[in-house]
């Protein structure tokens, strides 16, 4: 990450939330596209050295994104994102879960509500993401799974991708 770009990872154990504020050296429309188009998500949405592949995506209210993060040995870790509300270029809301390759949710792992907001910050874009869990135990589980480190690495990959898209 470029040192002058904002990155905040805030945990609120009373509200069972994680708030991530992340600035990118690109305009809001381009950053929005990187978050909402599978061909772009597949280029950055996984921590190094993982890669991402989309099985299916329908970016619309009631639609979904079914994807896998793949480790260097080929092991796949599947995710399911259900889009619940979309206000183009401003924000979207999702229900996020772990699943299998067929899209069956893994109820043993935490599910979360995500609110992803896109803001202008001068010439840059700011993405403010609030992730809400049902319980403190769920929140602590994802923190212990390395969510902060994983997000930091993932968002650095977006930093690397953005200049190639301008």
TrEMBL record:
<feature type="domain" description="Activator of Hsp90 ATPase homologue 1/2-like C-terminal">
    <location>
        <begin position="26"/>
        <end position="162"/>
    </location>
</feature>
<dbReference type="Pfam" id="PF08327">
    <property type="entry name" value="AHSA1"/>
</dbReference>
<protein>
    <submittedName>
        <fullName>SRPBCC domain-containing protein</fullName>
    </submittedName>
</protein>
<comment type="similarity">
    <text>Belongs to the AHA1 family.</text>
</comment>
<dbReference type="InterPro" id="IPR023393">
    <property type="entry name" value="START-like_dom_sf"/>
</dbReference>
<dbReference type="InterPro" id="IPR013538">
    <property type="entry name" value="ASHA1/2-like_C"/>
</dbReference>
């Amino acid at each position: 990450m470029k040192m002058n770009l904002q990155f905040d990872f805030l945990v609120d154990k009373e509200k069972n939330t994680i708030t991530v504020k992340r600035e990118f050296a690109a305009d809001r429309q381009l950053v929005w596209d990187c978050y909402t188009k599978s061909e772009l998500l597949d280029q950055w949405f996984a921590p190094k050295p993982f890669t991402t592949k989309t099985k299916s995506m329908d970016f619309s209210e009631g639609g979904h994104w079914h994807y896998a993060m793949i480790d260097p040995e080929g092991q796949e870790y599947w995710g399911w994102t259900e889009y619940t509300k979309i206000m183009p270029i401003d924000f979207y809301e999702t229900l996020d879960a772990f699943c299998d390759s067929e899209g069956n949710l893994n109820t043993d792992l935490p599910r979360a509500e995500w609110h992803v907001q896109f803001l202008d910050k001068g010439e840059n874009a700011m993405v403010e993401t609030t992730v809400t869990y049902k319980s403190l135990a769920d929140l602590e589980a994802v923190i212990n799974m390395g969510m902060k480190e994983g997000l930091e690495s993932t968002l650095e990959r977006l930093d690397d991708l953005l200049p190639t898209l301008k």
